[in-house]
Design brief:
Two copies of one chain form a homodimer. The first copy, chain A, is an alpha+beta fold. Chain A has a domain of 114 residues: Jelly Rolls (Sandwich). Chain A is 48% helix and 23% strand. In chain A, the strands form two sheets. Chain A has a four-stranded antiparallel β-sheet. Chain A has a four-stranded antiparallel β-sheet with strand order 2-7-4-5. In chain A, strand 4 and strand 5 form a beta hairpin. In chain A, helix 8 crosses helix 9. The radius of gyration of chain A is 19 Å and the shape is elongated. At the A-B interface, strand 5, helix 3 and helix 5 of A face strand 5, helix 3 and helix 5 of B. Chain B binds a DNA duplex through helix 9.
DNA sequence: CCCGTTAATTATCTTTTGTTAATTCTGCCA
DNA sequence: TGGCAGAATTAACAAAAGATAATTAACGGG
């Protein structure tokens, strides 16, 4: 019998999928539970894993030569997470991905589904849509760096995804915005003092 | 008879294309020449135009409410340029695209080729590859904002694409890096004074 | 060849950020 | 509940960036 969670995952991911393809896909799929702090993909790994986040939060970060850690991106429920170095470029990940919360994911081996679904229009369509969404998101983020100040980026962030404030520590949010935790703390102070005036 | 330039364009873009598709595509294609300063896509336009740059340089920029102009991206020869607001999201462009140099392009209406090539694997493949490349580039740029200082971004830029220094004015490069022209001038001074010491 | 326009640099001052370290806050567990 | 570790804030100073304006450089047209 087909796992209902996995079935739902694929129906969601590949709208209009041929039911005949489901069993093959599902056997290439597993569910996993990550605890806070668990590493999902380690720097240096060349992992073709691709996961849909059912619940939870995953942080992708990098540690530079001076030992300074920067958050490159955050992914949360209903989003897809993968090492884009590996998936897109076929090279080892320069980043580490780890769970910030208890996180449940549905995971596939991208190489396997790539083979299983080669030349299937539904897959091509979904894959295209997925990359397209990520591109749109990325371009928006680039714009925010080019066009906005750190303070504006922070205000934008808490407007777009307010629950991140409760879920992610300031130091991680700061580096996500391209600034230091100290600077973020000052920005918050400026904002509140501006309101209370 | 088929235009050899346009034929080459499609062969390049859609490797393995069915020759039977060429005439239809080519009739949806035109060559254009832009002079320095010519606007290619104006802010507010919802333009499905997509162009391959044979020669030249196109700048995408935005003017904010304070009248400050920022370069969002540059595209040059052998790259593809389009309003991603329109192509990806189907909405009017928030940016203006204009030529910085005499620029010759091969242009198609994206909606038309989308229809012409619906469900053709070669097209799906090319389209996917195109978005994938842009995504990889975008992610790299995001990283540069998160992980690098303005000075490091500048050094990276002149290493990756040194001819931009001759081809693009400093004020445009500055805003591309997310800083002001005055600040870029100081960065260059710092760098040279560091070398001469 | 001069003039006028624009770009680039420099100067001055203000604001913001980075750095480092000290201090306070918070949550957790022994 | 006392104490400890990590997070956040604050402080103090240095470095960098923004804003504005003045000066210099570069360039193209008349």
């Amino acid at each position: 019998m087909l796992d209902p969670d996995k079935t739902a995952f694929y129906i969601h991911l590949f709208k209009g999928i041929d039911p005949a393809d489901l069993p093959g896909l599902i056997s290439a799929t597993q569910q996993r539970q990550l605890e806070p702090g668990d590493v999902y993909i380690r720097e240096g790994e060349n992992s073709p894993r691709l996961a849909y986040i059912k619940e939870g939060l995953i942080r992708c970060y990098h540690i530079n030569e001076k030992g300074i850690e920067s958050t490159v991106l955050l992914r949360w429920e209903e989003q897809i997470v993968a090492s884009y170095d590996s998936i897109l470029l076929g090279k080892p990940s320069r980043f580490t991905y780890h769970a910030l919360e208890a996180t449940s994911i549905v995971e596939v081996n991208y190489d396997v589904i790539q083979k299983l679904l080669a030349n299937k229009p539904v897959f091509e369509q979904a894959r295209y849509q997925f990359v397209l969404d990520m591109l749109a998101q990325s371009l928006e983020r680039i714009e925010s760096f080019v066009l906005q100040t750190p303070e504006e980026r922070y205000l934008q962030l808490i407007q777009d995804k307010p629950d991140l404030l409760q879920r992610v520590s300031d130091k991680h949010l700061a580096t996500l915005l391209g600034i230091t935790p100290v600077s973020l703390s000052r920005i918050r102070k400026r904002i509140t003092s501006r309101y209370s005036r």
